[in-house]
Automatic annotation (TrEMBL):
Transmembrane stretches, start-end: 34-50, 55-75, 127-151, 171-191, 197-215, 220-235, 241-258, 278-296, 381-400, 412-429, 435-455, 467-488
Protein name, entry field: Glycosyltransferase RgtA/B/C/D-like domain-containing protein
Keyword Protein biosynthesis found: no
Keyword Cell membrane: no
Source organism, top-level taxon: Bacteria
Keywords: Membrane, Transmembrane, Transmembrane helix
Amino acid sequence: MKTVNSATASIFIFLAVLLSISRADVYGIIPSPLQVAIAIGIVLLLFGVLGGRKIFLTVLLAIGGFALIMLAWSFGTQPFFPAGHDGYVYHLTAIWDLANGWHPFFTSNNNIWVDSYPSGYWTLQSFLVSTTGLTMAGQSLLIGLMAVLGLQSYAFFQELTSPLMTRFKPWSAILFSGIVVANPVLLTQIQTHYVDAPLYLVGASLIFFLISDAFSRDRTAFVGAISCVIILINIKTSALYFTPLILFGGFLVELYIFREPSEPMRRVFQWIGKRGMYYGLAGVFGILVIGYKPYVTNVLDHDNFFYPPSAEIMDKNTPVNVQEPMSSPMKFLIGMLARTEHNRYGIPVEAPINIKIPGTFTLAEFKAPDFDIRRGGFGPLFSLALLASLLSILASRLAIIREELTLPQRKSCGIALFGFILLGMTIFFPEPWWARYVPFLWLTPIFLAISPLIFEVTGRTRIFAQSMLTITLASLLGCVLSGTLGAARQHVQTYERFATLEQMKAAPFVELTLIKEVRVFSDEDSLSQSDAATVYAEILQEEGIKTRITAEFDEEKCAQSGYFFGAVLWCIPNMSKE
């Protein structure tokens, strides 16, 4: 586990250092390749202090493998276009502007979302775009982070479950780590520019670093966790809610495992002095330095960390039966009982969430998920998985409630405790019904279900707990299947949508019209709410297609027309009517 922690931590440290260097280069005088080289050098120096030269090869292989995975994905997927709306509306604008030298600290961006949202993940993606010269290369960072989390979680579960297995020892670790990585929110955001999936990946890696450090006092896991904090805060504004709660979870797990009933406060102050203080400093650095824009600038310009205000963003953007003033726990309950349904074009975003009994499903639900799914986003069997995992841990823990727990059993309870913390922070999140907004909930049934494996229960309790574990795993695998089929359907439709580019190449030009938004957001520095039409103009120009951006769409004058992601209508004019 220590070798894996060194490998995975080195990647996150590299990304955090690279992000810091890009912020420090205020005049844009350091070329991207040189920034990468400097970051690698700093990582090697740090690991020289942590583990000596013997660990250099591990670090270089880890970063090199990480880079190769991303490069292979970037070039291998070059013929395909991304799915998703928000990528075209503002994510690509941010990535391309950063790749072209824009520094967010000193210049406002004309796009309101780019100007007001964290740019850390976009900055890391921009290195891939500027290095490869491929406009969509930023998507490959997600694949690299998936590989990192897969390796990290495999090593964790292998160490946890191998003493329990007499045969097929690697398979249980492969199963659990595979489920961790195959979060349907993540699967449906592959080949998109959404940031919910990377939020989950970096946050999940932070969780595994915290648990690993709590179990074995691993310095590399500790430094890896610090790096994750810096990166996580600069992926999405909701990280300001999730990050401190995840760190608090790590603190409670360590406090529980190594509890000292006679001197509990001594343990608390020890953790604060040896761990908590550094996590706090990392958070402050991530917000005030790396995240100066938007966090500080939003406060200075708008007197608010979050701009535009989330209440205004969610207005006319929420299913009617989970709107304010409904409480977050009630929204969570409706979200958990939701039928998994696709957000097809033409269905109002305020259409109600349909409720069902946990464990029931229709075949249509298994191909419904997409990048933005608002109803039953974790899959058709997730509520059953959550319920079964809760029954499993409760029955197992009650069976040994009067016994003195061994250290392995306390560690197992610590994992379950983290699962409950993730459940709690989801329930009280303002929008807990929307899976992509609360991606960490996916880990809760995994953490709850695996914990009873360590308990030495017998008889009916053992049979019941194992039955619930089987139901949990089968249900989660059903959700993975749903996410996989939904993602496949989504990418087939995306391919078909862009197949019309061949007809466009034969036209003198193509008109692009942005559908007007019902909600309007802007300020004195940022006048654009969507750059989708401009982004498509650049994409089509790369394909050799001339475009004109128009204010109004007139289907009658089109020889052929259609719809692009990001609310853009395209039209090949009928030249005989010109």
